[in-house]
Amino acid sequence: MTVDAPVAVRRTRRPRPPVVAFTSSLLSGDAKSATEIAWRYLAATGSRLAVISDLIHPAQYEVGELWYQGTVGVAEEHRATAIVIAVAGRLTPTPVARPVRPGACCILSGLTRERHIVGLQVLALALEDEGWTVHQLAPPTPPAELLRAVAEWRPDVVGISAAYLPATREISESIEAVRAMKVPVLVGGSFFNRAPDLWRTVGADAHGSDARVTTVLMRKLLG
Ligand code: B12
Q: Per the database record, which ranges form the B12-binding domain (predicted)?
């Protein structure tokens, strides 16, 4: 089965103030100011998960919408992404008070045609703060390699990310194969956020719309 690229989501409200300032720093290439805003938010919330879900995620979506509308160019978008990757990598860990059980382990992956990596990277940070051991397979990962890793590493959960999904067959076949090994599969990424029922169509156990929702779902799947 194939799915056409969905049309851009119409923005119904303006992002909240820290997101506006953060987005504007990203778009003007001001890494110093973007870092300061992120660190201030980290200090205020005491949570790397909050910075990821409330700041980084909405800012990158805003950048994506502006690019889609032709308001910003590819160079600005690439520069913004590079800054986001650097900022996220410098956030100090904020382990949660009640981590998941010792040894809880997951694999996060993007499949063959996927090139978007930021969502997986920040999600991995959030899950590490929850106590998960995260094996991140940076996209593009061939499905056969994902399946080999699942068979060898025996994770408690597998997460598959898709922002750009020209066809769903590869993802649904991979999900079926992982679930046949009795490992639950969560899906996420901006493509799934744009097509809210797609996770059921591809046979996943659940869809994590952002890092915060995902941490809750992962705990449920761990049982
Ligand atoms: C940066 C970017 C790029 C960069 C990626 C750089 C990199 N190293 O990652 C580059 C330039 C490579 C790129 C390329 C393309 N891109 Co692009 N890109 C983006 C952009 C602006 C931001 C992505 C991002 O960083 N998001 C921020 C993170 C934090 O959000 P996230 O990925 O959704 O992750 C969060 C959640 O979804 C969730 N999550 C993520 N993964 C997972 C996994 C699991 C298991 C779970 C549970 C949860 C979960 O948790 C995360 C944290 O909260 C988006 C806009 C957008 N709306 O996402 C477009 C966007 C995704 N790209 C788009 C397009 C069209 C493309 C290209 C086709 C453009 C082109 N013509 O070449 C190519 C496709 C490349 C490919 N084969 O994958 C479209 C996709 C449209 C669609 N099909 O629906 C978007 C939506 C832009 C738009 N508005 O149209 N892109």
A: 103-223
Tokens of 41: 């938010």
Domain boundaries, the chain: 17-90, 105-222
pLDDT at 45: 95
Q: What is the CATH class of 17-90?
A: mainly alpha
Under 8 Å between Cβ of 54 and 41: yes
Residue 216 Cβ contacting ligand 1 at under 6 Å: no
**How far from 178 is each of 8, 59, 114, CA to CA, in Å?**
31, 33, 19
Ligand 1 centroid–CA 223 distance in Å is 30
Question: Which atom of ligand 1 is found nearest the CA of 163?
Answer: 61
- Does 211 have pLDDT greater than 60? yes
Confidence of residue 9 (pLDDT cuts 50, 70, 90): very low
Give yes or no for residue 136 CB within 6 A of ligand 1: no
pTM: 0.93
